[in-house]
Amino acid sequence: MKLLRNNLLNVTKFLPVQNPCRLVSKNCNAQAKNVEAASQKSLKVAIIGLPNAGKSTFINHLINRRICPTSCKVHTTRKANKAIYTTEQTQLVFCDTPGLVTENEIKKFKLESSFKSAYRQAVQHADLIAVIHDVSNAWTRKELPFAVVDILKTYPRLPSILIMNKIDALKSKRVTLELIRTLTNDTLLNERTNKKRNNAITKESIPLKKPVNDDREVSWSNFSRVFLVSAIIGSGLNDVHNYLIASAKPRRWEYTAENFSDETPENLIVDSVKARLLDYLPQEIPYNLETFLEYYSVENGTIYASVEVLCPTQRIERLICGESNGRLRQITERVTSDLIETFGKAISFTIATRSKETQKKISQ
């Protein structure tokens, strides 16, 4: 353990001490600490949608802190996580849910048994449902997923908003307007045709009409608002932020102003490693890896941590490490950068690998 700690100390000097992006959040939290309970407001938002629709990226960029793990592969989010954002007298609690899946996908990707029920539990405790819909996929963008419509029908009195993500993929205003009409049963109009620089579409802009796709179950007539965003570049997020703040209800906060997640720091670190392994490893290999926290401590404002990755075979272990451990160093650097964005502190971090084959030989 002493050797591990010394290695971590040596890595620290190469890392930035503070992420400038966190200064704003710290100032907001400092103001929020003095807010009296009587003036506090909060809003619980359930984020739902298909895998890789951009749910976690949307939350991270909206609150300007990396809480939810993200990657280029599906099923990065394996369980419902809460991201907590507190500013002045208002606290927003986002429940990032796993993507809506089928039984076959649960078996294929070795997902937890609670995977399918996670989003329903999140919705049951929410004040608002936010549907993240990927409009960059030409094959699926014209229909809301059946599972999404099913949830909305199950909780028809719960307010809901539609967030059309990756909107920068749509180059035509005509296509955008047609898509809005299709997904909302022509009950909403895009205010951008009348008000420039406004990315929100409201019910008040046009009287509700009779739904035209009732029999197909591919749309929803009762969205309160529709937002056009590109979460990855931050476009349109200010409108969503302001809407959620305005929708908050007068009540005491569920969490203190210092909290930004309901997960422990240890779990956040392990989840960050899993997410980057998904980015760097091909096909289904990363889904078969086991990740454990070996060491964690906080000293003088610096986080020291080490994670071990258990591989099924030595071949996969060599694949993770790469030539002269080059790939492993890249993964470690990316995770370190992610953790700095998460905690806003200096991070000293290492990743070790081990194979089950080697473990068996040692035990024999």
Automatic annotation (TrEMBL):
<dbReference type="InterPro" id="IPR009019">
    <property type="entry name" value="KH_sf_prok-type"/>
</dbReference>
<dbReference type="GO" id="GO:0000028">
    <property type="term" value="P:ribosomal small subunit assembly"/>
</dbReference>
<dbReference type="InterPro" id="IPR006073">
    <property type="entry name" value="GTP-bd"/>
</dbReference>
<dbReference type="Pfam" id="PF01926">
    <property type="entry name" value="MMR_HSR1"/>
</dbReference>
<comment type="similarity">
    <text>Belongs to the TRAFAC class TrmE-Era-EngA-EngB-Septin-like GTPase superfamily. Era GTPase family.</text>
</comment>
<dbReference type="InterPro" id="IPR005225">
    <property type="entry name" value="Small_GTP-bd"/>
</dbReference>
<dbReference type="GO" id="GO:0043024">
    <property type="term" value="F:ribosomal small subunit binding"/>
</dbReference>
<protein>
    <recommendedName>
        <fullName>GTPase Era, mitochondrial</fullName>
    </recommendedName>
</protein>
<feature type="domain" description="G">
    <location>
        <begin position="44"/>
        <end position="166"/>
    </location>
</feature>
<dbReference type="GO" id="GO:0005759">
    <property type="term" value="C:mitochondrial matrix"/>
</dbReference>
<dbReference type="InterPro" id="IPR015946">
    <property type="entry name" value="KH_dom-like_a/b"/>
</dbReference>
<dbReference type="InterPro" id="IPR030388">
    <property type="entry name" value="G_ERA_dom"/>
</dbReference>
<dbReference type="GO" id="GO:0005525">
    <property type="term" value="F:GTP binding"/>
</dbReference>
<keyword id="KW-0547">Nucleotide-binding</keyword>
<dbReference type="GO" id="GO:0019843">
    <property type="term" value="F:rRNA binding"/>
</dbReference>
<dbReference type="InterPro" id="IPR005662">
    <property type="entry name" value="GTPase_Era-like"/>
</dbReference>
<keyword id="KW-0342">GTP-binding</keyword>
<dbReference type="InterPro" id="IPR027417">
    <property type="entry name" value="P-loop_NTPase"/>
</dbReference>
